[in-house]
Each structure stands twice: as C-alpha cells, then as structure tokens.
Hints:
Elements: E1 17-18, H1 24-33, H2 39-48, H3 62-71, E2 72-73, E3 78-84, E4 91-96, E5 102-110, E6 113-117, E7 121-123, E8 138-141, H4 144-158, E9 162-167, H5 177-188, E10 200-204, H6 208-217, E11 222-226, H7 232-238, H8 247-261, E12 265-271, H9 279-293, E13 302-308, H10 322-334, E14 338-341, H11 355-365
Parallel strand pairs: 1-2, 6-9, 9-10, 10-11, 11-12, 12-13, 13-14
Antiparallel strand pairs: 3-4, 4-5, 5-6, 7-8
Helix pairs in contact: 1-2, 4-5, 6-8, 9-10
Bound molecules: S-adenosyl-L-homocysteine.
Amino acid sequence: METRIQRLEEGATDPRRELLSLLPGELEEWMLSVGEPKYRAKQLFPQLHRGVAPEEMTNLGKRLQQKLQDAFWYHLPVVERKLVSSLDGTVKYLFGLRDGNCVESVVMKYRHGNTICISSQVGCRMGCKFCASTIGGRVRDLTPGELLGQVLAAQKDCGERISNIVMMGIGEPLDNYDNVIRFLHLVNCEEGICIGYRHISLSTCGLVEGIERLMREELPITLSISLHAPDDETRSAIMPINRRYGVDALLDVCRRYYGATGRRISFEYTLIAGKNDSPASAQKLAQVLNGKLRSRQDTMPIHVNLIPVNEVTEAGFRKSSKEAVLAFARVLESRGIRATVRRTLGSDINASCGQLRRETLSSEES
Ligand code: SAH
C-alpha cells in the first residue's frame, strides 16, 4: 500500500479500486473471490472506517495485506492546512487528495455534537455568482471514499466523534449523484461510523432531476434548497442553473418530495445588499412559498435560513445590513414562514467554503 504522502503522477491512471468506496457486502464478496474467509471483511471494515490504513493493521497478516495492495488503493485526505477559530472553536481544514487536488471541510462545535460540512466535488460548475467554489469551474467529482475520508480524517484529527454531516462545502452534491448516494450508504453502515440519515443534510442549488431521483432513494436525510431569490429574473441573474430549472419547477419538485418522504425541506436564502434583500423581495418570497407549497393541504412546514452573503472578493457583492436582515425575517414570520438568521461561525477563519482553496490556488498562481 502506498504511503499517505505519495501522490499519483499527473495523468497517471491506477487500475486498482478505492478500498474505502466498498460496502461491507462487496468487501465480503472480494474476500471470498481471493480465497479468504468472509470474517476477514468484518475485521477490516471497521478499522478502515476509523481511518486506519491496511498496512497499519497488525491483525491482517502479510499475505492478505499484499492481496489488498494489488487490488485497491487507500488514501485518507491529508491535512494541508488547518485553521481554528478563536471565537467559537470552528475548525477549517484544507485537505489534500491523492492526486494533489484540495478540498475544504469545516467542523463546527455545537452543544448537541460536532457537525462536519464536507465538499462533494473539486470546484463546481454551477456558476452561482456569489460563490467562491465555482470560480475556476469543476475539476472533478469526489469518489465515495473521498467523501467519507473527509469525515474520517477530521474525526481522527480532532479526536472527537462527529455526529452530524452537512453537504454544503465545495461542489454540487447532486451533480455527483452516484458517488454521493454510495457515500450516504457507507457513512450509515453499522460496522462503520454509523451516522443516521436524520443527522445528514444535503444542500442543492436545485437540480430538479436529481431531487426527483433522491426522492426515490427513500433515505430520510434533510434536503436543503439554495433558493436565494423569489422570482426567475432575480434568481437567474445570480444562479445560472435557474435558466434550466426555474423557481416554479423547483418548488414543484419540493412539494412532491415532501409529499413522498414527509421530510421537511429547508430553504437557504443568502441576503445580498440591493439584490434580493428588500421587504418587497421578502413579500414575494412568502407569497411564492405559501402559494406553491401550501396551496393544497396547508401542512408543509417551511423553514427559511437567512444568511448575510459572505463577501467573496471576486464576486463584489455586499452583505445586507443587520436591519435589512431582521426586517426580511419579520416579513416572512408575519406570513407564517419560520425564518432564522444563520449564526456565523468561524468568521475569523473565512469558514465559508471555497475561500481557502481559492486563496491557496491564487497564491500558487502568483
Ligand atoms: N451546491 C450546493 C452546496 C454547496 S454551497 C448548493 O448550492 O446548495 C452551500 C451553501 O452556501 C449554498 O446555500 C450556497 O448558495 C451558499 N453560499 C455559497 N457562497 C456563499 C456566500 N459567498 N455567502 C453566503 N452563502 C454562500
């Protein structure tokens, strides 16, 4: 097995499979296929999911280690940089992947436990105008093992259990659909770190077909929709994906999703001064959410998270004032929509995703 720091040569391909992407049953099948007893998989899987590499496992034996090395690669993300907020203990990691690419993960400490925000792709191709992750486009998708690896590496580094996951880091999870679904199964495995689906949120900019597919997976995760605007004109101006799936189509699929799963959906709304933060925008938002989601049975709970935009240098957008944020929230509440203003964690370490990777890339470029 290669060492952790060894990297794939650029352009090199490795015919071996990624060990961390295998589900328990697949590992058992592989054991049988190479003439090993099934129980070996039961020995191996929990250790892999604690972040231990096969070459570090003393109970495997040299012969099996060699077989594993011939068939698989195993690489846990490496901590390239780590920033710890002196305000609230939030930890931001810049993780190095096997091919030298980097992604970011953030561990937030709450009273109810530790939550990790993970990335789903290297870069992003959705093009949201306010977002740092999309500058430079999408480089590649993360593998299921790399998605899981962020949780394992962070847990190992901080020495505390991580109990919640939000997929709100770099990338669009539904643009990496199959790998994300496999990751959800992996992270939920009893033999692994066993994080319940109800402790996992997936955030999307609104890929309607992906939401439709997700609905059929019947995983009781929480879905978050990055809405950010109440109408097509405003939304298309800041989120190009809206030209493919407009607000109507997006809210329609949300209604079907709630109908099929009974799972509450939360809406993210980032407030940008002068763009989408007026009381009139709030009225329009309340109207469209109530109209689209509550017209039939009046049952769907609607929750909007208001987030003053994080000012990304390249984007040139300004945060809404505190007064504008509170006024926006009041309008929603007066129309029966729960609104919370997102507490900013790690503001001293640039904790919103995409910024650290961006910073590292630009210092390498200059
Ligand atoms: N692609 C997914 C998940 C990643 S982004 C999505 O769009 O939901 C996670 C959240 O952060 C999204 O709601 C996104 O719109 C928001 N976001 C991105 N850049 C931001 C910024 N500069 N300020 C505030 N929120 C931002």
